[in-house]
Amino acid sequence: MDREISRAFLIIPEIREFLSQNDREALKEIFYAYEPVEVAEILTEFSLKERVLLFSLWNIDFAADVFEKMEKDDQIALMGAIDEARRGKILNELAPDERVDFFEELPEEMVNRFLSIMEREEARDARELMTYDASTAGGRMTTEFASLKEDITVQQALEELRKTAKELEMIYYIYIESRYNHLVGVISLKELIMAEPTTKLSEIMHTKLVTIPIDMDQEHMAAEIAKYDFLALPVVDNRGRMKGIITVDDVIDVIEEEDTEDMYKFGAAGEHVEDYMSMRPTLVARNRITWLLILVVTSFLSGLIMQKFSFALESMIALSFFIPLIMGSGGNAGTQAAMVTVRGLATGEIRMGDIWRVVRKEFLIGAMLGGGLGVLALVRALIFQKSSLLGTTVAFSMIITVTAATCLGAILPLICKRLGIDPAVVSGPLITTVLDIASLLIYFRIAIFLLGLS
Amino acid sequence: MDREISRAFLIIPEIREFLSQNDREALKEIFYAYEPVEVAEILTEFSLKERVLLFSLWNIDFAADVFEKMEKDDQIALMGAIDEARRGKILNELAPDERVDFFEELPEEMVNRFLSIMEREEARDARELMTYDASTAGGRMTTEFASLKEDITVQQALEELRKTAKELEMIYYIYIESRYNHLVGVISLKELIMAEPTTKLSEIMHTKLVTIPIDMDQEHMAAEIAKYDFLALPVVDNRGRMKGIITVDDVIDVIEEEDTEDMYKFGAAGEHVEDYMSMRPTLVARNRITWLLILVVTSFLSGLIMQKFSFALESMIALSFFIPLIMGSGGNAGTQAAMVTVRGLATGEIRMGDIWRVVRKEFLIGAMLGGGLGVLALVRALIFQKSSLLGTTVAFSMIITVTAATCLGAILPLICKRLGIDPAVVSGPLITTVLDIASLLIYFRIAIFLLGLS
Question: Which parts of the chain span the membrane according to its record (chains A, B) (predicted)?
């Protein structure tokens, strides 16, 4: 997607002016009118010293909100530079899930130092969240949710909420917990507002709950929330106790992350790292070399096949002219089919039960595509090589290669999925390389048969 | 992402039981306990006749919610089969944005018939929404938002909301409109609940608003909402009048759609169509053939190049054994680099201003990768062909090809973007085919020079 420069960048000259005049009041007011994410963008234009000054002016709520939106590197630099009292206050004020994301970038020793200057309860909370794997529901959830007991009235619930709302990330769903912290129900704030003030929560709450197990992986978790169109889902441990919530904005981040990962796999581009722009070239190269090496070794096989059939090439050098065409068409047709299946499995459009229907369909598609391209190749051979036998060889090879490529491209991701491997590892380059070998074998066999070479 | 079978499927035997007993009360109660999306999933297991019966039992709210979650084909069949009175009621009750999505699948004549049985105001609303392009903010927005005047108090606002909440999709942000429907402010329900009951809305509303222009494309729109972490953003026309809202669940759909489109482009798989499983193979084939034809024509060029240099191949047939290796490595390295830039531009990780840094970086990465693979190719040539000259030829070709491929893969998407073309058209197959030609030229030139062929 396309991101544009923020409207907030327009106020940068004004801010510089206020900074040079040391006009503290104006520096507060001008920033407060903007959203934290915009302020974080603006800050990238200012020096660390200026940032420290600004963070010492702002109220803690606002400072924490802006801090959450900054880049990890800038967060670390800022935390190191501000004075300890303010540092502790900001750490206490951060959203629990954002705080853990920040801590995960730091060496353990520094985390412990930060935990030691935080309020006891917040520090305990952070320690608990850090025990969960970062890519599971536990690692993504926030612990600031609205929770009430079932035996109070709507009126009492609203009063209670009024008191606690400020601390909470999300008050639009209110979770009802039993005496033993078991999640027993949920009410939306909308329902609460519409209900009679004297009704008991237990009478109006929903009790068939959709919950996320605390160890569910983030991809699966995002799919659940996207499916239900809820603003948040509760996270429960294996004893049914409520531990936190996942909000819909976390889901957007997860979907973008997971799609990026899938695309990198499809491009055989190695692991996705967050900071491509600041990463050293040697590290990026190391990231990509593994796949290239695997593919090179497979290409060696293509070379060996050609070597084995060199007698055919020697007796008719024109055979070699069609090798790029046949290998290329197979690779491209296979890549198309693989893309459709990989993405179809990811979005749920294709299910495992559809496996035979997909294969049958792709077989027909492949035969049609192969037929079309085969005729084209035949025409080319007739025009440039004036050999109908060579033309027939190429045309037949094309039909068989493209059909096989399309089927293989479609079926490989399904097989991976059945074996419990992420279907996205079936990348374009992998398909291409595997098909190179297959198409050479097909081509030479047909050539030897039709042209009577030996 | 991974979707699993819903927990709701467990109740299917029970439902069949109730259907055979014609137990209408039980059929209502058992469904009401589940979420609309789950009910829509369950319905796929039942016949059209059974669906019609169920839709006639349920209350209209629930029926409309379930209808919204059904597949387009099933929606059309159901609407055709239920009686007209109920049909009109369900149409009136649908969320405006979902209703327009449904109408867009239908022939104009049928839409007019449906509009004629709807309430006047709902029909007018639907007609207006249909005038906007489906992939813009106007085509995505819903018109059911909470709107109040600025001169009322918090107390009055809450009372007003209590009355209207049932009709609205989203009451967690309340938009403040001037007398001329100009959007002048916004307050969250959270802020409203925390505020003093006697405060005027004008005193507490936010006035620096982030808005979405009604003609903004959906990709850009999704990026804006994802950036701000809001639950919804207001959509305004070019005179600043508020027309609707975009909610965060729309954004999730858009992101998945746009990512799918990008991936299809990268796999050169043609247009993404929603119903792969139900689409005829001929149509899928037609969808994919365009790219294959373009790539085949490019492959012809590779063949012509080989033909031109056939004298070199004739004097040393072993030269041909390395063609798959060199072409393959170039294609793969280029695909990797293209993937990183395409996705980086999409997520905003790489910006247009970074163009030279990216190229410099990819040049270094390419040289390292090419060097590594070149050494490997040299070793292979020494072992199997026992020719150090051929080995040197292959090694040099590898270094130059892979370096050029990496740079080209990285820079092509940036050039496209600058020219106003979607960078995602720089697909793996395109890169591979372009590089086939380049790598053959490089390889033959080096071979002729080093091996003294002519």
Answer: 289-306, 318-342, 363-383, 395-416, 428-453
Q: What are the residues whose beta carbons fall under 8 Å from the beta carbon of B309, sequence distance 6 or more?
A: B440, B444, B448
- Of 3.10.580.10, 3.40.1000.70, 3.90.70.10, 1.10.150.240, the CATH number of B145-265 is 3.10.580.10
Q: Which two tokens stand for residue B7?
A: 């927990």
CA atoms of A394 and B399, how far apart (whole Å) = 32
Among B324, B242, B439, residue whose Cα is nearest residue A305:
B324
State the smallest CA–CA distance between residue B113 and chain A in angstroms: 30
Structural contact between residues B365 and B407, judged by C-beta atoms closer than 8 angstroms: no
Burial zone of B375 (CB within 10 Å; 0-12 exposed, 13-18 middle, 19+ buried): middle
Residue numbers in B near A324 (CB within 8 A): 299, 302-303, 306, 323, 327, 436, 440
Fold of B276-451: Tetracycline Repressor; domain 2 (1.10.357)
Chain B contact for A332 (CB, 8 A cutoff): yes
CB atoms within 10 A of CB B118: 20
CB contact under 8 A, B347 and A210: no
CA A100/CA A134 separation, integer angstroms: 9
Residue B380: closest C-alpha in chain A: A300
Domain ranges of chain B: 7-131, 145-265, 276-451
* Overall CATH class of domain A7-131: mainly alpha
Question: pTM (2 decimals)?
Answer: 0.78
User: What does the radius of gyration of chain A's CA atoms come to, in whole angstroms?
Assistant: 30
Q: How far is A131 from chain B (nearest CA, A)?
A: 25
Inform me whether the C-beta atom of residue B441 falls under 8 Å from chain A C-beta atoms.
no
Flag if A324 and B299 touch (Cβ within 8 Å): yes
| Alpha-carbon distance values, A227 to A223, B35, B37, B327, B341 (Å) | 6, 10, 7, 43, 30
Task: Check CB contact of B308 with chain A, cutoff 8 Å.
Answer: no
Asked whether B265 and B345 are in contact (CB, 8 A), the reply is no
